[in-house]
Amino acid sequence: MRIDIISIFPDIFQGPFSHSIIKRAIDKNLMKIHIHNLREYGLGKRKKIDDYPYGGIPGMVIRIEPVYHCFSKLLSKRSYDEIIFMTPDGEILSQKYAQYLKNKKNIIILCGRYKGIDQRIRDNLISKEISIGNYILSGGEIAAAVLVETVVRLLPGVIKNKGSIMTDSFQEEESFIAPPIYTRPVIYKGWKVPDILLSGNHKKIKDWLKKKSMKIKP
Ligand code: ADE
User: Fold this and answer.
1) Cβ neighbours of residue 212 closer than 8 Å, sequence gap 6 or more
2) What are 161-206's pLDDT values in tens digits?
3) Domain 2-152 in CATH 3.40.1280.10
4) Which of 137, 147, 148, 150 to mutate to test the pocket of ligand 1 (most atoms within 8 A of CB)?
5) Ligand 1 within 6 A of CB of 59
6) What is the DSSP letter of 48?
7) Domain 175-212, CATH homologous superfamily name and number
């Protein structure tokens, strides 16, 4: 899988992408991430990427041309399965959508900033709009990192213990919440691991875990 991320703050990704699972996936060549600085596609000497919105609305808007040129360059080299725009008014990211994306070959993620991007980009060039929740971030970068992480952990070979993914919340179905989980010591400051987990009765343990898992009603 290849993900191309377009942003005006590419350095934001250095932290999230250089540790743990995402780093391992990149190092093992299971996933390629290319980050493009939108500013490089800016207009004129000053590499302008934004402008005032029509209609007297306050704030600045990302212009069409830099985004169009960046998209054109990428699309001239390969086809893309999905061109995603990170925006708070998009569809809320779900485990189901991550599972859909994990089977795709090439994806572009465009990160918004300022007041937003010219609507014509959204209307004509974007195939999916994704939000990570009903709150406002300063831009789409952190949201894009969240999206990448949800997808990367599902790629074959990234997480060795496949059973671990299957027991994650939301993995099997939307209403599934992972059961509570414990490790040693059995008692700490009087707080005890539930007896059932120590009983050695596999059938009973399985039933208990199942009961504890189904918390949200669909
Ligand atoms: N950009 C700003 N806020 C966002 C959000 N909640 N989700 C995705 N992109 C965003």
Assistant:
1) 179, 180
2) 877 777 787 777 777 788 999 999 999 999 999 999 999 999 999 9
3) yes
4) 137
5) no
6) B
7) tRNA(m1g37)methyltransferase, domain 2 (1.10.1270.20)
